[in-house]
Amino acid sequence: GDVDKALEVFMWMREAGEVPTTRSYNTVLTACLRNSEVDKASKVFENMQRSGIKPDRVTYNLLISAFGNLGDLNKMWRVYEIMGRSNESPDVHTFTQMIVAFTRARRSAVSRQLFQ
Fold first, then answer.
1. Dihedrals φ, ψ of 90, to 5°?
2. Residue 9 is inside which H or E element, if any?
3. Could you give phi then psi for residue 75, rounded to 5 degrees?
4. Which DSSP state fits 56?
5. What is the mean pLDDT of the chain?
6. What single DSSP character describes residue 106?
7. Which letter, b or e, does each residue of 82-93 get, where b requires 16 or more Cβ atoms within 10 Å of its Cβ?
8. Maximum CA pair distance of the chain?
9. Integer Cα distance of 77 and 39 in angstroms
10. Long-range contacts of 77-82 (CB under 8 A, 24+ apart)
11. What share of the chain is helix, strand, coil (3-state, %, to 5)?
12. Where are the PPR repeats (predicted)?
């Protein structure tokens, strides 16, 4: 499908000597997540980190949103912690996604803490 084609083009670019940018990684992540390919998105993110490409706020928010929508609060929180150790600060979108995810999971105490 579209995700496999995006990954194929991405790998071809790398093999051709093109250095992927944060934006190109985010494009592939978006393709994966639009097609509910969260496992592939996780692998792309891991590859991004191994390659020394610095994730940006968009990268983190894509993953936080995806894991939050899946109800995988542990992975969502892990991405948030990685974001906290980077120079990227959470924004309104970050906190909104996390509050919604914790509220859906009936973890309103955590939602209130994030809101404050």
1. -60, 150
2. helix 2-15
3. -70, -40
4. -
5. 87
6. T
7. bbeeeebebeee
8. 50
9. 16
10. 82/55
11. 75, 0, 25
12. 21-55, 56-90
What span, in angstroms and rounded, lies between the C-alpha atoms of 69 and 1?
Answer: 22
Tokens 């994030």, located at residue: 114
The backbone torsions φ and ψ at residue 53, rounded to the nearest 5 degrees and listed phi first, read: -85, 130
**C-alpha span between 73 and 11 (Å, rounded):** 30
- Over residues 69-101, the pLDDT tens digits come to 999 999 999 999 999 999 899 999 999 999 889
Q: Name the one residue in this structure whose structure tokens are 């990684």.
A: 25
18-65 pLDDT per residue, tens? 888 999 899 989 988 888 889 989 999 998 999 899 999 999 999 999
Q: Which residues contact 102 (CB under 8 A, 6 or more apart)?
A: 73, 108, 110, 111, 114
Query: Could you give the CA distance from residue 64 to residue 92 in angstroms, rounded to a whole number?
Result: 12
Q: Which among 82, 84, 85, 76 has a CA at the least distance from the CA of 111?
A: 76
DSSP 3-state of 16: coil
